[in-house]
Amino acid sequence: MRRTVRRGRVLTAVLALAAGLLAGSPSAMAAQPVERAMSVAADPYTWKNARIDGGGFVPGIVFNRSEQNLAYARTDIGGAYRWQESSKTWTPLLDSIGWDDWGHTGVVSLASDSVDPDKVYAAVGTYTNSWDPKNGAVLRSADRGASWQKAGLPFKLGGNMPGRGMGERLAVDPHRNSVLYLGAPSGKGLWRSTDSGASWSQVTNFPNVGNYVQDPSDTSGYASDNQGIVWVTFDESTGTGTNATQTIYVGVADKENSVYRSTDAGATWSRLPGQPTGYLAHKGVLDAENGYLYLAYSDKGGPYDGSKGQLWRYATGSGTWTDISPVAEADTYYGFSGLTVDRQNPGTVMATAYSSWWPDTQIFRSTDSGGTWTKAWDYSSYPNRSNRYTMDVSSSPWLTWGANPSPPEQTPKLGWMTEALEIDPFDSDRMMYGTGATIYGTEDLGKWDNGGQFAIKPMVQGLEETAVNDLAAPPSGGAQLFSALGDVGGFRHTDLTKVPSMMFTSPNFTSTTSLDFAETNPGTVVRAGNLDSGPHIAFSTDNGANWFAGTDPAGVSGGGTVAAASDGSRFVWSPEGAGVHYATGFGSSWSASSGIPAGAIVESDRVDPRTFYGFKSGKFYVSSDGGATFTASSAGGLPSGDSVRFKALSGTKGDIWLAGGASDGAYGLWHSTDGGASFTKLSGVEQADTIGFGKAAVGASYQTLYTSAKIGGVRGIFRSTDQGSTWTRINDDAHQWGWTGAAITGDPRVFGRVYVSTNGRGVVYGDTAG
Predict the structure, then answer these.
(1) Using H for helix, E for strand and C for coil, what is the string for 581-605?
(2) Where would you find the membrane-spanning parts of this chain (predicted)?
């Protein structure tokens, strides 16, 4: 509902913010490795998502032009999906992407082959700057995304970069389907494959690599990257049989030279004469039947910005340009991006005002090739609106955000960041469009034109696109799971198979960074998070069903980490922008903690309500007076950086497990049984990034351990039922989900159940197959 820049996901993945459930304790010996027998076995698990349905930006929807009901969706950080018509759900296609290639979960473009519908291509890579260390790739599949082969590229791609809603940058020749084109960012130009995506080479004679950057002053390279070449469109009427299509249009991020054309199958290129200037062409959609190229223009690259826009139509035969904007340029406060043609009735065109944040997005429709337009909503008498649609979000009720806005705003909103808009090429009544939080759709679009109201509802089930910062599974109460999420705050799941009715509210954090419950009083829950204005901490006394805001100490700028005393009597909070603080009761008054540095990760002992732990820059800290004072432990050999998660075990005071580190220093899993006075490093765990506990196995006296780790040379999700002496890998190569380093927890009530954080694929949970 709100405009939330998703840079938090950047930090989640790349800087590995310790937003997981963390914990620790007191002083003494250096951490010494202990020799334990490590075995890596396989245990069959079934994996599902804790249902949220959506939760992130969907910048692209692609229908196959030759096979009905074959459609794909791309997300900016959460992979790609294929539509399953029989169940009206989406199937994830990139869960096999592993830890080392986490950036390939960002999909900058998709292409579905209309000659051979079994073939699909995905251009992958999340950031073009240093945040993503690896180059991009083009993935190719001959079985609709069930399996993939990869062609590496000599440059990076940016599925979560500015301009990611433009496109599609990847296109298959509709006649000679061995030929594909890819528009690259960062000044890398136009690329072509002539062997069905197996290899790529630059089209060296393409004249323009683009020059538009969102913010040249951004020293991180994120907003200052050249957005490059942004779409490729074939004119299928200029090819026959298996001969290469002759006419190709290419969109470039250059406000003075935004559209280029080849009329000889890519041998030569020229700037399209007479074109509009001063804008970026977000989309170029061709109606070959009537000979029109439609272009949606915005003054910015999106997906958040854009304050002016136009729509244009180019007649491919005569070369005539016509301004078909549905609104005068002076009256726009948004750019245009979403653009689609009804392939059953090609004179019908639709477009979106993607960057109209207030009071709502707008969708425009023309049935005469852009001569006249109607709107999805209009003012009857300001501020009252008359809508051509109805909305039913009962399948994803949180899409109202719990809001009660004043007109002309409504809830749920029609959308925002609406850069993906597609009419089903086989069904004029079906349309889907992506927003910053879901995919909406309708199956009776024709009512738009006859005075009725067409029905919009979420068409997103199976597509899970949240970035997970923290997870907690309480031992009792109605909640099975609490999640701390980017962009949509987080949820209380009482049934993993059902979408919760609402995210956390009162207040609604834009992103929740940390949460905890009182171990022996799990009705008491605390969460901390980010909010543009307002408190950064909230409490619940009814197991997370209802919430109330706390107050902030001076200087707080972000959520940081928070810990609840085992009995819920007090809290320790390490927010961004201020030092560590403690409070008795529910945070109406905070006092500064001493002896612990600002920015420390904090956790509580799960038995002693006055014992809290902290970690910062290789040092472990312990408080035995409720967080008032901390003392640095003399334990050494711990990771020197802050990519660490730690937790204290329930039922035993001072039993702490710590995971984390980096490949250029100490990295692994450590255990303390004396409240952090000393730690022992598990020698068989090469790397570990998370640690969590679940119900003990039958016959075992110690809780089950879970970790996202590298053990026996293999990266995966591991389980141990014998205090880490042996480990079993419980995921497989088909279920890796990229980066899983933010949080993990077992279920204290169900043996074998584990909840895994992902950076864009939501909350994944696994159960033993038996």
Answers:
(1) EEEECCCCCCEECECCCCCCEEEEC
(2) none
Which residues 6+ apart lie within 8 Å of 609 measured at CB?
A: 565, 566, 567, 568, 569, 570, 626
How confident is the model over 470-503, as pLDDT tens digits? 999 999 999 999 999 999 999 999 999 999 999 9
Strand locations in 443-541, DSSP E?
454-458, 468-472, 481-485, 489-493, 511-518, 521-530, 537-540
Q: Which residue has the tokens 């077992």?
A: 746
Least Cα distance to 269 among 192, 183, 207, 182 occurs for 207
| Residue at 382: amino acid letter | Y
Q: Which residues are catalytic?
A: 76, 487
The two tokens of residue 341 are 């043609």
Q: Per-residue pLDDT tens for 509-524?
A: 999 999 999 999 999 9
Q: Which residues contact 352 (CB under 8 A, 6 or more apart)?
A: 336, 337, 338, 339, 361, 362, 363, 364, 418, 419, 421, 433
20 and 743 in contact (C-beta within 8 Å)? Answer: yes
Tokens of residue 644, six digits: 């660490």
CB atoms within 10 A of CB 625: 12
Are the CB atoms for 127 and 106 separated by under 8 Å? yes
What's the pTM value of the predicted model, to 2 decimals?
0.94
Nearest to 621 by CA among 639, 641, 596: 596
- Under 8 Å CB-to-CB from 455, ≥6 apart: which residues? 389, 390, 391, 392, 442, 443, 444
Are 493 and 500 in contact by the 8 Å Cβ rule? The answer is yes
Alpha carbon distance 762, 740 (integer Å): 10
Q: Strand 349-353 and strand 362-366: pairing?
A: antiparallel
346-376 pLDDT tens trace: 999 999 999 999 999 999 999 999 999 999 9
What's the pLDDT tens digit per position in 77-103? 999 999 999 999 999 999 999 999 999
Cβ burial 239-250 (10 Å sphere, 16+ → b, else e) = beeeebbbbbbb
* Contact of 648 with 25, CB cutoff 8 Å: yes
Strand partners, 431: 423, 442
Handedness of CA 668, 669, 674, 676 (dihedral sign): positive
Q: Two tokens at 86?
A: 């029989």
Q: Can you say whether residue 388 is alpha, beta or left, with left for phi > 0 and alpha for psi between -120 and 50 degrees?
A: alpha
In whole angstroms, give the CA distance from residue 45 to residue 730.
6
The residues that bridge with 350 in the sheet, in sequence order, are 340, 365
Distance CA 697, CA 359 (A): 54
Other CB atoms within 10 A of residue 343 CB: 18
Residue 8 has pLDDT above 60, yes or no: no
CA-nearest of 466, 438, 499, 453 to 61 is: 438
Mean pLDDT, residues 50-73: 98
Work out the mean pLDDT of the chain and round it to a whole number.
Answer: 94
Cβ atoms of 501 and 492 within 8 Å: the answer is no
Q: Which two tokens stand for residue 360?
A: 């709502």
pLDDT digit string, tens, across residues 304-325? 999 999 999 999 999 999 999 9
Q: Would you state the structure tokens that stand for residue 392, as one six-digit string? A: 């039913």
User: Which residues neighbour 33 within 8 Å (Cβ) at sequence distance 6 or greater?
Assistant: 680, 681, 682, 683
Q: Please name the residue that has the structure tokens 């990869």.
A: 150
